[in-house]
Amino acid sequence: MSSRRTLVYAACQLGGWGLYGLANILLSLLFIATTSRGGEQFASRTAWTVLMCISGGLITHLARTWLPLREWVRLPMRRLALLIPFTCTALGLVQQVIGLVLAYPVLHIYGASDFSFSFLIMGGAFWAVVMLMWLLTYLTVHFVEHAREVERERWRQEVAAQTSELRFLKAQLQPHFLFNCLNSVRALIVEDPVRAQQAVTRLSTLLRHALSSHGPETVPLSQELQVVRDYLSLEGIRLEERLRVREDVAPETLGIAVPAMLVQTLVENAIKHGIAQTPEGGEVAVLARVRDGALQLEVANTPAPAGTPAPPHSSGEGLHNASERLRLLCGMGASLQLDQTSAALTTARVRIPLSP
Amino acid sequence: MRVLIVDDERLARAELRRLLAAYPDVEVVGEATHVEQARQQVEALTPDLLLLDIQMPGGTGFDVLEQLDEPPDVIFTTAYDAHAVRAFSVNALDYLLKPIEAERLAESLERVRQRGHAQRASEPSRPTGTPLERVFVRDGERCWLVQLAQVPLISSEGNYSRLHLPGHQPLLLRSLSYLEEKLDPARFFRASRQHLINLDFVETLEPGPGGTLVARLRGGPEVEMSRRQSLRFRERMSL
């Protein structure tokens, strides 16, 4: 990785300064063509240009070696606004001094009469601008790289957080649900022992599923629906005729991978915010089909009557987390939306694009 | 003891009925499944004890109590509610965790019986239309059944009233005028538009500016009476 970076750097240095030199030599050639006296100085001017490119390359290379340029991407803008002009000017001045030495005593391009104050300043400013361009190019590359790294790190952390959160959710399995359920089962033992036995079996299945936290992050829809059915049948014992369930699942959707506990979360929400808040109860409908190259999942429920206070411990966080997890596991094309526009129906809609 | 069961789940109610069947002195007079029904049943049946679920359609058990003029004794039943359990740990309100243990239920009922005996001993007759004696209040995470005889001062806060008790000042969802009407006039006196004072707590009375009276209440606060009420108070005292 670092040897590749060195190679890219070297190519940029050689290419950049080489192009600069080539352009200068071509300009000199053009100059010769238009004037009669230009030819005499062409050789020395070309030599000067080549030497200037080499010194420019060296100066910038030394600047890269000696100055902590790569750390500058972390500096605040205000410090950079001071550092960059200062560095450019310093580098430009060094280059200018070398240029003058080469041009006057060594190559004799200029005579003593050619020097004036404004000439010197102009030369210095020119080289400072060249150095500024070099510096900006160098820093931009590193800025982009740094930003990309930060973004990658952010995603890594988010995934880690979501994973641990999922484990936690699975592990705790709604104590409220659990104890209400056990209470119902206790009443059933006297009233209807056979149903009580069934309920205990269902509860065991659900607990086993919730406790196997090392399972895959996504499961086939058929498996997820099995969990949902166990859960709904237990809620059915608790809510009795208040809970009506409708399932409309197209056979071709059963094998599609969905985030584990996704439908379960939606169904739980539907009961907590809808059915359990309504004295006469209502219907929970689970729909799945393939349309427009995507799996379309819907969990619809009869909403709580208007003006019902929100049940405690509900900040909409569950739905938000589910939505984040969905995007992490199924890509940015996946979406989860809650449709509360109809007074008669609250619908959670999930869309998971099928990979071609 | 006449009991009303409030729970939205039929099986939970059945389980409670079964557990209560063991007590010959306990009679289940009715059942309610949600907040509004619970309020109506309490008013219609005037039970001695409420077995009250916390989570139910249309609100919580706390909402039921807040809507009642004078709540009966209460035992909360809850599957699991860290908040509720914390709310009770600081005061006399009792709660049972579902599934309910028979022994815990027996303890709670015994506590209610004793409380009932103490009250009936102090006030032998309770005809209808008696003044309001206690209220349910919620203050953040905590809740109380407050005996109004122990409240020195009630002040008005818009449509609500604030009970000034030592250590806490919970808000009550009733207006001061409403309370004045419902409270025992021999005990509570309207000192001004802002204040209702408990005469049992008045320690000293001093003349204030412009012929008014300033009452100093046991446990701290001074309350200035309005001119009109000062006059009325003097008339009453001289009788």
UniProtKB/TrEMBL annotation, chain A:
Q: Name one Pfam family in it.
A: His_kinase
Could you tell me the superkingdom of the organism this chain comes from?
A: Bacteria
Task: Outline the extent of the Signal transduction histidine kinase internal region domain.
Answer: 164-243
Quote the InterPro entries the UniProt record gives. Bact_2-comp_sensor_kinase, HATPase_C_sf, Sig_transdc_His_kin_internal
Q: Which GO terms describe its molecular function?
A: kinase activity
PANTHER family documented for this protein: SENSOR HISTIDINE KINASE YPDA (PTHR34220)
Question: Know the name of this protein?
Answer: Histidine kinase
From TrEMBL, chain B:
Q: Which residues carry this modification: 4-aspartylphosphate?
A: 53
- Residues in domain HTH LytTR-type? 137-239
Per its UniProt entry, which superkingdom is the organism in? Bacteria
InterPro entries in alphabetical order: CheY-like_superfamily, LytR-like, LytTR_DNA-bd_dom, Sig_transdc_resp-reg_receiver
Q: Mention any Pfam family matching this sequence.
A: LytTR
PROSITE patterns given for it?
HTH_LYTTR (PS50930), RESPONSE_REGULATORY (PS50110)
The UniProt record lists the Response regulatory domain at 2-113
Task: List UniProt keywords, sorted A-Z.
Answer: Phosphoprotein
Q: Does the keyword Ribosomal protein apply?
A: no
Q: What name goes with this protein?
A: Response regulator
Taxonomic source organism: Myxococcus landrumensis
| Lineage of origin | Bacteria, Pseudomonadati, Myxococcota, Myxococcia, Myxococcales
